[in-house]
Structures are given as structure tokens and as C-alpha cells.
Design a protein that fits this description.
Helix content is 49%, strand content 14%. By secondary structure, it is of the alpha+beta class.
Length: 129
């Protein structure tokens, strides 16, 4: 198994919220210390939290995860995933557009949807495959 697959499997297995960044090199996840965004390099398995400045490798992350699970510490704070937010915005806009079918409001919503989609594509480019 490649280190990349191992890293992703670890995050999934321990139910750590994450998303893969656009370049497919990093996974952003919820830091187990401060619950802000940390980044895990998927090939080297080195990670760091830009908020609390904690750094380590996958081995230290495993130990940290085991410690946290023993203490039953889980955050209720929502980890922000920009792709998920983008999908939710699009979903709600489409619902509004369907409800206003055949009205002037529909035309305005379609304009807004196009502008938001263009903006989000600039801010959150599609992931390279």
C-alpha cells in the first residue's frame, strides 16, 4: 500500500474529518490538539497545524489519536470543508430556482448562480485527478 493510501485510510478509519487539497498532495484535517485546520502531506506523511504549530509524522499522529480516543475527546466544532460548502450552496440555489420556475425571480437567481459558480471555481478549483 502506498503511503498516500495509508494516510487516507488512517484518517477514514479514525473518523477524522478531512478533505484532499486541489493538488492531491495534502489532506487538510482537523488538528487533534486545537481542532483547527492541519495539513498532512500524503506522500511523506509529515503533518503540521498552522494554528497551534504542532508538527509530526504519521506515527506521531497515530499516537496522538490513540491518546485522544482514550480520553474520549471529540470536538463538536464543525470542520470547514470548502468543497462541501460549495456543493451545499449550489444545492440550495437549485432548489430556489426550481421553486421560482417561470418567474422573473428565476432569471435573477440564474444570474446569481452563474456568478457564484464562476467565483467559487476561482476560489476552489476542481481537484486534479
Amino acid at each position: 500500500m502506498s503511503l498516500k493510501k495509508f494516510s487516507i485510510s488512517f484518517l477514514k478509519e479514525h473518523e477524522i474529518r478531512y478533505f484532499i487539497n486541489n493538488n492531491n498532495e495534502y489532506a487538510s484535517f482537523e488538528c487533534l490538539i486545537c481542532y483547527k485546520k492541519a495539513n498532512l502531506h500524503l506522500e511523506t506523511t509529515k503533518w503540521e497545524c498552522s494554528y497551534c504549530k504542532t508538527v509530526g509524522d504519521i506515527e506521531s499522529l497515530i499516537k496522538l489519536c490513540e491518546t485522544k480516543l482514550k480520553q474520549h475527546e471529540r470536538t463538536i466544532e464543525i470542520f470547514y470543508n470548502p468543497r462541501k460548502e460549495k456543493n451545499e450552496v449550489n444545492y440550495h440555489l437549485k432548489k430556489l430556482i426550481l421553486k421560482s420556475k417561470g418567474t422573473e425571480f428565476e432569471k435573477e437567481l440564474l444570474k446569481i448562480q452563474n456568478k457564484i459558480e464562476r467565483l467559487l471555481e476561482e476560489l476552489i478549483p476542481k481537484r486534479a485527478t
